[in-house]
Amino acid sequence: MALKQTEIRELIAGHKLRDMLFDVLGLIVMLFALLVLGALFVQLVVDGWDRLGLDFFQSYPSRRASQAGILPAWVGSLSVMLVTAMAAVPVGVAAGVWLEEYAPKNWFTEVIEINVTNLAGVPSIIYGLLGLGLLVQQFSLGRSVAAAGLTLAMMILPVVVVATREAIRSVPQTIREAAYGLGATRWQVTRDHVLPYSLAGILTGVIIGLSRAIGETAPLITIGAVTFIAFLPAAPVMSEPPFLNFEWLTAPFTVMPIQMFNWVSRPQADFHVSAAAAGVVLVAMTLLMNGAAIYLRYRARKRIKW
């Protein structure tokens, strides 16, 4: 008996040692990845620091690197992301709720689930070809902000659906049973209990999808994003009735990644400096989006009382 206890202690000690080594190895890998990422970002900031100024944000692209700016690019990125979020988030969340809470478990829903999961890994260029054939040509949206936003919305829609389902699935079943026991309907359970408890996870999935979309280039080039544009789309809000203007949805556009690609492809070194500065701005925009999502997720979790 004493021998068996000794063997058990040695086995437990060996498992603890392997767990500790795995933790240390994981920490080293994570720190190394963060170090590489930080070094690349610092190098990007150093290369583009001279161009980062107010004029850089307020100027149009130019053949002269010293005068070139990113005004149409960052305005276009925000416009496209607005359309993307307005199209993908409601549809993706609604689809995830239906699949997880309402859809019957049969072969039809299984086919939908398999296809949604597979679509999350489809290359972005395929969505660009889909947007070109369906939105630009079939629906006659042209090479516009609306076509770009809807193309990116189709690309991130599977990500939002999968994230929504996983967040809803993490809600304890006892919460649903307690609500049903008090006489709540299925929609009341979903609206008042399931969605509030899963909101933090849903926001995480949404921001992952939007962060992927803001840096995409291939699908936007496919549907016809311009590399040089010297004007801004019409403002969506006016000071006179009807106050809302939708002409900006049909305007040509460019975005930050395409503007960076245009500058990097030029032989002049000064344009490479501008591309580095634009890269810093793009990273900052992504970090702001993630920061907003983290704040909203924190607020959502804070309101939950178990």
Automatic annotation (TrEMBL):
<dbReference type="GO" id="GO:0005315">
    <property type="term" value="F:phosphate transmembrane transporter activity"/>
</dbReference>
<dbReference type="InterPro" id="IPR000515">
    <property type="entry name" value="MetI-like"/>
</dbReference>
<comment type="similarity">
    <text>Belongs to the binding-protein-dependent transport system permease family. CysTW subfamily.</text>
</comment>
<keyword id="KW-0813">Transport</keyword>
<dbReference type="Pfam" id="PF00528">
    <property type="entry name" value="BPD_transp_1"/>
</dbReference>
<feature type="transmembrane region" description="Helical">
    <location>
        <begin position="220"/>
        <end position="239"/>
    </location>
</feature>
<dbReference type="GO" id="GO:0005886">
    <property type="term" value="C:plasma membrane"/>
</dbReference>
<dbReference type="InterPro" id="IPR035906">
    <property type="entry name" value="MetI-like_sf"/>
</dbReference>
<feature type="transmembrane region" description="Helical">
    <location>
        <begin position="145"/>
        <end position="163"/>
    </location>
</feature>
<feature type="transmembrane region" description="Helical">
    <location>
        <begin position="73"/>
        <end position="99"/>
    </location>
</feature>
<feature type="transmembrane region" description="Helical">
    <location>
        <begin position="271"/>
        <end position="296"/>
    </location>
</feature>
<keyword id="KW-1133">Transmembrane helix</keyword>
<feature type="domain" description="ABC transmembrane type-1">
    <location>
        <begin position="74"/>
        <end position="293"/>
    </location>
</feature>
<protein>
    <recommendedName>
        <fullName>Phosphate transport system permease protein PstA</fullName>
    </recommendedName>
</protein>
<keyword id="KW-1003">Cell membrane</keyword>
<keyword id="KW-0472">Membrane</keyword>
<feature type="transmembrane region" description="Helical">
    <location>
        <begin position="21"/>
        <end position="46"/>
    </location>
</feature>
<feature type="transmembrane region" description="Helical">
    <location>
        <begin position="119"/>
        <end position="139"/>
    </location>
</feature>
<dbReference type="InterPro" id="IPR005672">
    <property type="entry name" value="Phosphate_PstA"/>
</dbReference>
<dbReference type="GO" id="GO:0035435">
    <property type="term" value="P:phosphate ion transmembrane transport"/>
</dbReference>
<keyword id="KW-0812">Transmembrane</keyword>
<feature type="transmembrane region" description="Helical">
    <location>
        <begin position="246"/>
        <end position="265"/>
    </location>
</feature>
<feature type="transmembrane region" description="Helical">
    <location>
        <begin position="194"/>
        <end position="214"/>
    </location>
</feature>
